[in-house]
Amino acid sequence: MDDNDERNALVTRLAEGRVPRVLDLLRYRSPARQFEWRAIDGWALAAAHPTAHAWISACLDRPKLTSRIVQLLERLALVARLEPGLTPKKLFRPLDLPANQKAAWPPWVAQDDATLLDEVARARHVAGLAGAMPGALQRLLDRDDTAARELAALRERAKSVGLSSAEHGRLEKLERLSEEPERWSAELSEGLRKALPKHVALAGLTALEALVRGKLEDRWQEVLGSTRPPLDDPAWDNALHMLWSLRSNRRILLRLLRHAARGDRVWMRDLAPNRRFLAALESAGLRPDEWLADWSLVVAGRSAPLAVYTATDPLEVLQMGSLFGTCLSAGKFNAHAAVAAAVETNKRVLYVKDAAGRVLGRQLLALTAAGELIGFTAYGAGSAGPEQHGAWVKLALELLALAIARASGARLMSASRLAAGLSDTEEQALMLFCRGYVDSLEPFDWWIEGLAEADPRSGDDDRTRLRTLLERPVPPDLDARDGPRWRREDLGWAACRALLWLGADEPPLPREQQEALGLGDAQRALIDKTNRGT
């Protein structure tokens, strides 16, 4: 099932035939993550239990709660995956336990409302919250007593010091209400009835979140002891499933998680294989500290800037597969390689995010001991949608790789070298001490290589150099007119990315030069749209 089919199936199930819900759910933009555990599986569990179903259903009528509901359903599915054979009855048993003590509600509370108040009290008990009622609801329940005290105080004040005009008006209103108890009770009931649906939804959702959090906390306590990780972070959910499902690199992952829970992100640099690799870099004249530094750039996107950066949080590195549904995802056959990327110092993971913080792209870089920088598949930058953001994702990733290479003294491994492939020995050398996986190699754009060769240290004159590279006669090995269609397209998108980066500095290129560079209608249209700001 592809992403759209799965999303549509989830919307259909959660909507339960209610059109307003369908519209609200379709407007919701889910985070960029593709876990093996799915929200739709969590809904199947919750829908099989009457109370859990009722509480979540109440939340689904409130669009502001949608993101919390989806995360809850994903986590329910994770709990079930970590405990095969778990039934809804067992999972939601705390919801079926009778209340310790039946609450006594004010006499003006109608029976139906009292039932909902009992529901709120039960949910708050399951959630471990202090007090049977949230403050706002308790104030509504106390309005009768509060009004009686206020009336008595105003009467006393009127006898002693007198009242202001506003206080006189308030006293008159309270006197009228005290003389019409049925009307006052109706007003109290109406206020309560309006407030209850919201509080039932919030209390129920909080209870279910606490129940799931408790289940996951139990799992973490088994492996981390008293150290408590951030339990509401999807990155830690991903790590927990990875720890549960891995067969290779599990021991080093456990060490990583114990350090990460204490806030230590750099402990792995002291491991002997990593120290040897960094020493080899230094001996080769490279700058290891720059290679390991926290790097970031901002690149203009189609409609808003994109941020590209090196992941320094190992938990974020572990998501490199799950964010794009690749074989490195937790639970998939190459998940162990994500662990290697998180702990081996010859690897860096780059992410691209939009202005809203959504992950759009990712790429793994690896550095050889001799100082050659290798790029692997750039996810989010492929042909599935270059007109939307793929061209900028690839551009952002390559510009950051170039900046890192220059700062660290590395050399970009050339396209011709990558085309020949890595030998078994070279692939093995990329695995410092973990079991790994060598993804498809992806060459850097020819003009990125050209900028690196022209000046390995500085990018001060890159825009001028790039104009020269685009205007010069195209070398035979880069002439798109002489290659197959796939080659023309690859070269055309590479030239397109160069022109997107130049923006208003784009040089005038004769039609023959554009054809040699591989620029076709699709690339030209994207460039023109960008320049027009449409």
How would you describe this structure to a colleague?
- The chain has 534 residues and is mainly alpha-helical.
- It has four domains: 3-97; 111-208, no CATH class; 233-444, no CATH class; 461-534, no CATH class.
- It has helices at 3-15, 19-27, 39-47, 50-60, 66-82, 88-91, 93-96, 111-127, 135-141, 143-160, 165-179, 181-224, 234-245, 250-261, 272-283, 288-291, 314-317, 335-343, 386-408, 415-420, 424-429, 446-454, 462-471, 485-502, 511-517, 521-532; strands at residues 296-299, 306-310, 347-353, 359-367, 372-375, 411-412.
- A six-stranded mixed β-sheet has the order 1-2-3-4-5-6, with helices on both faces.
- Strand 5, helix 19 and strand 6 (411-412) form a beta-alpha-beta unit.
- Helix 5 (66-82) packs across helix 12 and helix 8 runs parallel beside helix 12.
- It is elongated and about 100 Å long.
- Mean pLDDT is 92; it is low at 383-387.
Task: Please outline what is shown here.
The chain is built from 26 helices and six strands. The chain has 534 residues and is mainly alpha-helical.
Total helices: the number is: 26
What is the 3D shape? Answer: elongated
- The whole-angstrom Rg is 31 Å
SSE class = mainly alpha
Give the overall pLDDT as a whole number: 92
Helix content: 55-70%
Into how many domains do the coordinates divide? 4
What topology, given as strand order, has the largest sheet? 1-2-3-4-5-6
- Let me know the largest β-sheet: 6 strands, mixed
Number of beta-strand segments: 6
Strand proportion, as a percent range, falls in 5-15%
Q: How many angstroms separate the termini?
A: 33 Å
Uncertain stretches: 383-387
